[in-house]
Amino acid sequence: MITISSLLWDANEKSQPFSRHYDESWVIKLYNGFARNLNLPWRFVLFTDKKRDLIPDEIKQEIIRADLNYSACIEPFRYGVPMILCGLDTVVTGNVDHLASYCLEREKLALPRDPYMPERACNGVCLITNGQQYIYRNWHGENDMEWLRRQPHDFIDDLFPRQVVSYKGYVKKHGLGDARIVYMHGYEKPNEIKEDWIKEHWRLT
Questions:
Q1: What is the pTM assigned to this prediction?
Q2: Could you say which of 37, 42, 52, 66 has the lowest number of CB atoms within 10 Å?
Q3: In whole angstroms, what is the distance from residue 33 CA to residue 27 CA?
Q4: DSSP assigned state of 187
Q5: Which strands, in side-by-side order, build the sheet including 181-183?
Q6: CATH number at residue 27
Q7: Spatial distance between the Cα atoms of 70 and 15, rounded to a whole number of angstroms
Q8: Alpha carbons 172 and 53: distance in angstroms, whole number
């Protein structure tokens, strides 16, 4: 079984303005995106600061143990299971069975290339293979992206070209194309983008 995971905590003094929009509706929209586009057995786990009222109630909730800042994005690695980890500002736009299969069948973590410095990784979406819990176990609060860059990894862009892409770094310039997952970073979140594909793929039903 593949695990899909994301995180939600109430905005605090460490939260940037561009990430103060998130609430339970974003969790449901992300869940629904995977429900429409993933045919393998899967479950959704939300790492959160408190119990949330969520429908569907199949969404499993785990209380975040780490400090509530962006580095807490390392926490889902403690599961040590095949997992697709993404932010709530992520839109699933096509079938992702092959991305889930990578997590289930391969050995090395896969990360996107940074859209502005492609020689290094970013953590917009993480394809996590079995047995990666050491990434959490050896972590001592370091910046999450810098910590992941130090781990052995492949690049999603090389494995699945133009299928896991940045909105600002790719879609805004070139269109959706064959993208299966679009991740956001910084400003311009799904609620701010007035494009037809957002209406189609980022919704509560």
A1: 0.96
A2: 52
A3: 10
A4: S
A5: 90-92, 181-183, 164-166
A6: 3.90.550.10
A7: 8
A8: 34
The three-state (H, E, C) secondary structure of 95-163, written as one string: CCHHHHHHHHHCCCEEECECCCCCCCECCCEEEECCCCCHHHHCCCCCCHHHHHHCCCEEEHHHHCCCC
3-state helix, strand, coil in the chain (%, to 5): 35, 20, 45
* Total of domains in the chain: 1
CA-CA distance, 190 to 182, in Å (whole number)? 10
Long-range contacts of 147-154 (CB under 8 A, 24+ apart): 147/71, 147/74, 148/74, 148/109, 148/111, 148/121, 148/123, 149/111, 149/120, 149/121, 151/109, 152/108, 152/109, 153/108, 153/109, 153/110, 153/111, 153/121, 154/108, 154/109, 154/110, 154/111
Domain carrying residue 25: 2-201
Mean pLDDT by groups of 10 residues along the chain of 205 residues: 97 87 96 98 97 88 94 96 98 98 98 97 98 97 96 98 98 96 95 96 94
**Distances in Å between the alpha carbon of 12 and those of 52, 83, 93, 129, 131?**
17, 27, 30, 32, 32
- The residue to which tokens 């609430």 are assigned: 23
Q: Which amino acid belongs to residue 203?
A: R
